[in-house]
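Sorry, I am new here, but would you mind making up a protein's amino acid sequence and the tokens describing how it folds?
***
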Amino acid sequence: MPLIKTTAMFKKAYDGGFAIGAFNVNNMEIVQGITSAAAELNSPVILQCSAGARKYANSRYLVHLVKAALEVNDIPIALHLDHGPDYATCKSCIDDGFTSVMFDGSHYSFQENIEKTREVVEYAHAHNVVVEAELGQLAGVEDDVNVSAEHAHYTKPEEVEEFVSKTGCDSLAIAIGTSHGAFKFKPEQCTRNADGVLVPPELRFDVLAEIEKKIPGFPIVLHGASSVIPKYVKIINDNGGKLDDAIGIPEDQLRKAAKSAVCKINIDSDLRLAMTAGIREHFMAHPEHFDPRQYIAPGRDYIKELVMHKIKTVLGSENSAADIMALVNEY
């Protein structure tokens, strides 16, 4: 099965009230854990590479790792560039075989964002590749993305129709309160529930609803959507780590978003936490081990566990693979 674009995925997700998981990949074990989980649940999946991942592993290695996953797993897979900083990076990924790219022009003025996004769209569409754009800015730190809280701002619903029309982008990442990284919120921004767990402010579903009205049927993307699952944070801290006040997006809010126009939900920090939990736990139990296969494998197992959990309880994309493949030729 070849790599596919996200178009058929998003069509089915929008109509079916679910979202496709976009999971960041950096090495072989992460690719294996994600795709093994998706295959077991008959779910489509987007594997995405950030600028940091391309620097770490080299884009060609990542492309071939993803293509190897296609030979092993009979599911729809799209290969996506996450947060492409410029035209040259997007073009390089398109030329390397990516089926989807994101150009992040959110830090430019509205008009500059339109112009630069349109340039990427023209090249991508000429090569049968789709483009995700961003309007509004998320706070937080992840790889090369670093936006302070004072510079973050919500997407303005009154701008989305013009932006989508003039750029020709195929999906739109918006800012409604999610944030990059594992430390998305300060404790003083949160409240405590009956169990004493810190709960961050609710996502701006009112902004999302207004955006849906402006561009009906258009696929929306949420970045910075890791939940920072307490289980993995606890394992890390119990085994020598120090992740105090790591707070993520509640999963019930993400499931609510997935039932709306949100067709793609990005998950990166949760993968990092799961792998780190497995490795730290293994080293504490087996300090004599030095073979990477011994200690990376538990991290891979936790990644598979995490992705299966996300597909079942957050994304809702289980058992949609065949329906999506039936649509691929139409898009």
